[in-house]
Amino acid sequence: MPMIGLFFYIEGKLLAYKVALEDAEVYGDFLTSPVSHDTVWHKGVGMNRPVDFDYFPRGRVVYNRKERKYIVYIDRCLDTPEHIAEILKAFGLEDCQKTIAFDEHYQCHRCNKEYFV
């Protein structure tokens, strides 16, 4: 079943927070996760890590209700066939209409030249 949500890549491992469409938050023409990366980070993913949520590559899967397709926003570090395939499989999107997109919001410490550690 296709899902929306958000994800992190930490130490080469995909960590996905998935949400069914019926549990999604409406944001204009989109269905999106009702929680943020920051919230998921502070409620467990980031425990015992000395960095903030935007340090690691991350992304988000939303559903465009008007166009009836999924949009997968990814960090440019994740723009490889292997990473994309893993993300699509995790969210059940292999056979769905989708677009892979980049947004400056999704930049890890390596991609964001203004990132301050």
Describe this structure in words.
The chain is of the alpha+beta class. The chain has one domain (4-41, 53-102). Helix content is 16%, strand content 32%. The protein has two helices and seven strands; from the N terminus they run E-E-E-E-H-E-E-H-E. The protein has helices at residues 37-45, 81-90; strands at residues 4-10, 13-19, 25-27, 30-32, 58-64, 69-74, 98-102. Strands 1, 2, 3, 4, 5, 6 and 7 form a seven-stranded mixed β-sheet that branches. Helix 2 links the parallel strand 6 and strand 7. The longest helix has 10 residues, at 81-90. It is globular. The N and C termini lie far apart (38 Å). The relative contact order is 0.21.
- Helix-and-strand structural type: alpha+beta
Q: Helices and strands, in N-to-C order? A: EEEEHEEHE
Instruction: Determine the N-to-C terminus distance.
Output: 38 Å
Chain-averaged pLDDT: 92
The main β sheet shows up as: 7 strands, mixed
The total number of structural domains is 1
Output the radius of gyration: 14 Å
Indicate the percent of residues in helices: 10-25%
Number of helices: 2
Give the beta-strand count. 7
| Anisotropy-based shape | globular
Q: Which residue ranges are poorly predicted, with pLDDT under 50 across at least 5 consecutive positions?
A: none
Approximately how much beta-strand content do the residues carry? Answer: 25-35%
